[in-house]
Design goal:
It is a single chain. With about 200 residues, this protein is an all-alpha fold. Helix content is about 65%, strand content about 0%. The protein is built from eight helices and no strands. It is rod-shaped and about 100 Å long. About 20% of the residues have low confidence.
Length: about 200
Amino acid sequence: MTTTSFSVRFSGCFLTLLIWAGCTSVVCLVDENSAAQPATTIGYHTTETMAANATYGKSTMSFGCGNNTHMCVEYCSICHEFSSVPLMECLSMLFDHLCLSHFEEAMTSLRTDWWCTWSNVSGLYSNLSTCTEEISDCLLIPWPSPLVEQIFVDIHSTYFKDCPSEELSDPPPVIIFALVITPICLIPVMVSLVVLKTKNGDGSS
Protein backbone atom coordinates (compact mmCIF):
# COMPACT_ATOMS: atom_id res chain seq x y z
CA MET A 1 0.00 0.00 0.00
CA THR A 2 1.45 3.33 -1.04
CA THR A 3 1.47 6.36 1.20
CA THR A 4 -0.93 8.22 -1.14
CA SER A 5 -3.56 5.47 -1.16
CA PHE A 6 -3.24 5.07 2.58
CA SER A 7 -3.74 8.83 3.08
CA VAL A 8 -6.88 8.78 0.90
CA ARG A 9 -8.34 5.81 2.77
CA PHE A 10 -7.37 7.38 6.07
CA SER A 11 -9.13 10.63 5.14
CA GLY A 12 -12.25 8.62 4.28
CA CYS A 13 -12.22 6.95 7.68
CA PHE A 14 -11.66 10.30 9.35
CA LEU A 15 -14.68 11.76 7.50
CA THR A 16 -16.75 8.79 8.67
CA LEU A 17 -15.59 9.50 12.24
CA LEU A 18 -16.76 13.13 11.96
CA ILE A 19 -20.16 12.10 10.53
CA TRP A 20 -20.58 9.54 13.32
CA ALA A 21 -19.74 12.11 15.99
CA GLY A 22 -22.21 14.63 14.56
CA CYS A 23 -25.10 12.19 14.25
CA THR A 24 -25.11 10.57 17.69
CA SER A 25 -28.47 12.20 18.50
CA VAL A 26 -30.21 10.95 15.29
CA VAL A 27 -32.43 7.86 15.54
CA CYS A 28 -32.35 5.66 12.43
CA LEU A 29 -35.23 3.26 11.66
CA VAL A 30 -34.12 0.03 10.03
CA ASP A 31 -36.41 -2.25 8.13
CA GLU A 32 -37.04 -5.48 10.07
CA ASN A 33 -36.31 -7.67 7.06
CA SER A 34 -32.96 -5.98 6.55
CA ALA A 35 -32.17 -6.23 10.24
CA ALA A 36 -32.89 -9.95 10.23
CA GLN A 37 -30.13 -10.56 7.71
CA PRO A 38 -26.74 -9.61 9.15
CA ALA A 39 -24.43 -7.92 6.68
CA THR A 40 -21.24 -9.73 5.77
CA THR A 41 -18.11 -7.67 6.30
CA ILE A 42 -14.84 -8.78 4.78
CA GLY A 43 -11.42 -7.49 5.70
CA TYR A 44 -12.22 -5.48 8.82
CA HIS A 45 -14.56 -5.20 11.79
CA THR A 46 -17.08 -2.37 12.01
CA THR A 47 -16.74 0.23 14.71
CA GLU A 48 -19.93 -0.97 16.39
CA THR A 49 -18.65 -4.55 16.55
CA MET A 50 -15.32 -3.46 17.93
CA ALA A 51 -17.00 -1.24 20.51
CA ALA A 52 -19.22 -4.13 21.60
CA ASN A 53 -16.28 -6.48 21.82
CA ALA A 54 -14.36 -3.91 23.86
CA THR A 55 -17.34 -3.57 26.21
CA TYR A 56 -17.56 -7.30 26.81
CA GLY A 57 -13.81 -7.72 27.10
CA LYS A 58 -13.22 -9.27 23.67
CA SER A 59 -10.36 -7.79 21.68
CA THR A 60 -10.39 -8.07 17.87
CA MET A 61 -7.37 -5.80 17.40
CA SER A 62 -3.79 -6.73 16.78
CA PHE A 63 -2.74 -4.16 19.40
CA GLY A 64 -4.05 -2.99 22.75
CA CYS A 65 -6.50 -0.11 23.14
CA GLY A 66 -6.22 2.20 26.12
CA ASN A 67 -9.87 2.34 27.25
CA ASN A 68 -13.44 1.74 26.09
CA THR A 69 -14.52 5.34 25.54
CA HIS A 70 -16.16 6.03 22.17
CA MET A 71 -13.40 8.27 20.87
CA CYS A 72 -10.67 5.90 22.01
CA VAL A 73 -12.37 2.96 20.27
CA GLU A 74 -12.68 5.10 17.14
CA TYR A 75 -8.95 5.88 17.13
CA CYS A 76 -8.06 2.24 17.64
CA SER A 77 -10.52 1.01 15.01
CA ILE A 78 -9.04 3.34 12.36
CA CYS A 79 -5.55 1.99 12.99
CA HIS A 80 -6.91 -1.56 13.11
CA GLU A 81 -8.51 -1.19 9.67
CA PHE A 82 -5.10 -0.23 8.30
CA SER A 83 -3.29 -3.02 10.10
CA SER A 84 -0.78 -3.29 7.24
CA VAL A 85 0.49 0.19 8.14
CA PRO A 86 2.89 0.57 11.11
CA LEU A 87 1.16 1.80 14.23
CA MET A 88 3.45 4.84 14.55
CA GLU A 89 2.54 5.89 11.00
CA CYS A 90 -1.14 5.64 11.87
CA LEU A 91 -0.47 7.70 14.99
CA SER A 92 1.23 10.33 12.85
CA MET A 93 -1.81 10.49 10.55
CA LEU A 94 -4.15 10.90 13.53
CA PHE A 95 -1.97 13.71 14.86
CA ASP A 96 -2.07 15.44 11.47
CA HIS A 97 -5.85 15.20 11.04
CA LEU A 98 -7.03 15.66 14.62
CA CYS A 99 -4.39 17.80 16.36
CA LEU A 100 -2.12 19.70 14.00
CA SER A 101 -4.87 20.75 11.59
CA HIS A 102 -6.81 22.51 14.39
CA PHE A 103 -3.65 24.13 15.76
CA GLU A 104 -2.54 25.40 12.35
CA GLU A 105 -6.02 26.72 11.56
CA ALA A 106 -6.17 28.60 14.86
CA MET A 107 -2.65 30.02 14.43
CA THR A 108 -3.50 31.18 10.91
CA SER A 109 -6.53 33.04 12.26
CA LEU A 110 -4.25 35.04 14.60
CA ARG A 111 -2.24 38.04 13.51
CA THR A 112 1.40 37.12 13.09
CA ASP A 113 2.50 39.81 15.56
CA TRP A 114 0.41 38.04 18.23
CA TRP A 115 2.23 34.73 17.88
CA CYS A 116 4.98 35.76 20.27
CA THR A 117 2.53 36.77 23.03
CA TRP A 118 2.19 33.73 25.28
CA SER A 119 -1.30 34.65 26.50
CA ASN A 120 -2.56 34.48 22.90
CA VAL A 121 -1.17 31.04 22.09
CA SER A 122 -1.01 29.25 25.44
CA GLY A 123 -4.50 27.76 25.04
CA LEU A 124 -3.75 26.50 21.52
CA TYR A 125 -0.42 25.10 22.66
CA SER A 126 -2.06 23.31 25.59
CA ASN A 127 -4.84 21.87 23.40
CA LEU A 128 -2.27 20.49 20.96
CA SER A 129 -0.36 18.87 23.79
CA THR A 130 -3.53 17.36 25.30
CA CYS A 131 -4.69 16.06 21.91
CA THR A 132 -1.43 14.23 21.21
CA GLU A 133 -1.41 12.80 24.73
CA GLU A 134 -4.98 11.46 24.55
CA ILE A 135 -4.46 9.73 21.21
CA SER A 136 -1.14 8.25 22.36
CA ASP A 137 -2.79 6.92 25.53
CA CYS A 138 -5.57 5.31 23.48
CA LEU A 139 -3.05 3.47 21.32
CA LEU A 140 -0.93 2.62 24.39
CA ILE A 141 2.06 4.49 22.97
CA PRO A 142 4.28 6.27 25.54
CA TRP A 143 3.89 10.04 25.69
CA PRO A 144 5.91 12.10 25.01
CA SER A 145 7.53 10.21 22.18
CA PRO A 146 10.09 11.19 19.51
CA LEU A 147 7.15 11.81 17.14
CA VAL A 148 5.53 14.25 19.58
CA GLU A 149 8.83 15.97 20.22
CA GLN A 150 9.37 16.40 16.48
CA ILE A 151 5.90 17.93 16.12
CA PHE A 152 6.68 20.60 18.71
CA VAL A 153 10.11 21.25 17.18
CA ASP A 154 8.42 21.78 13.82
CA ILE A 155 5.77 24.19 15.13
CA HIS A 156 8.42 26.17 17.00
CA SER A 157 10.51 26.53 13.85
CA THR A 158 7.40 27.51 11.87
CA TYR A 159 5.58 29.89 14.21
CA PHE A 160 7.94 30.95 16.99
CA LYS A 161 11.41 31.14 15.45
CA ASP A 162 11.31 34.97 15.26
CA CYS A 163 10.12 35.47 18.83
CA PRO A 164 12.66 37.21 21.09
CA SER A 165 14.35 34.98 23.61
CA GLU A 166 14.00 35.77 27.30
CA GLU A 167 17.33 34.17 28.16
CA LEU A 168 19.92 36.43 29.79
CA SER A 169 22.87 37.41 27.62
CA ASP A 170 26.20 39.12 28.25
CA PRO A 171 26.18 42.94 28.05
CA PRO A 172 28.08 44.67 25.23
CA PRO A 173 31.90 44.81 25.56
CA VAL A 174 31.81 48.60 26.09
CA ILE A 175 29.70 48.23 29.22
CA ILE A 176 31.90 45.41 30.56
CA PHE A 177 35.02 47.56 30.00
CA ALA A 178 33.46 50.54 31.80
CA LEU A 179 32.44 48.41 34.79
CA VAL A 180 35.94 46.92 35.07
CA ILE A 181 38.04 50.06 34.49
CA THR A 182 36.08 52.34 36.84
CA PRO A 183 37.13 50.70 40.13
CA ILE A 184 40.71 50.26 38.81
CA CYS A 185 40.98 54.02 38.18
CA LEU A 186 39.43 54.87 41.54
CA ILE A 187 42.05 52.93 43.51
CA PRO A 188 45.02 55.33 42.90
CA VAL A 189 42.71 58.33 43.40
CA MET A 190 41.62 57.00 46.79
CA VAL A 191 45.24 56.27 47.77
CA SER A 192 46.29 59.81 46.83
CA LEU A 193 43.49 61.32 48.88
CA VAL A 194 44.47 59.26 51.92
CA VAL A 195 48.14 60.34 51.61
CA LEU A 196 47.22 64.01 51.24
CA LYS A 197 44.88 63.82 54.20
CA THR A 198 47.59 62.23 56.30
CA LYS A 199 50.16 64.92 55.38
CA ASN A 200 47.75 67.72 56.12
CA GLY A 201 46.99 66.20 59.44
CA ASP A 202 50.68 65.88 60.41
CA GLY A 203 51.46 69.52 59.42
CA SER A 204 48.61 70.96 61.46
CA SER A 205 49.62 69.05 64.57
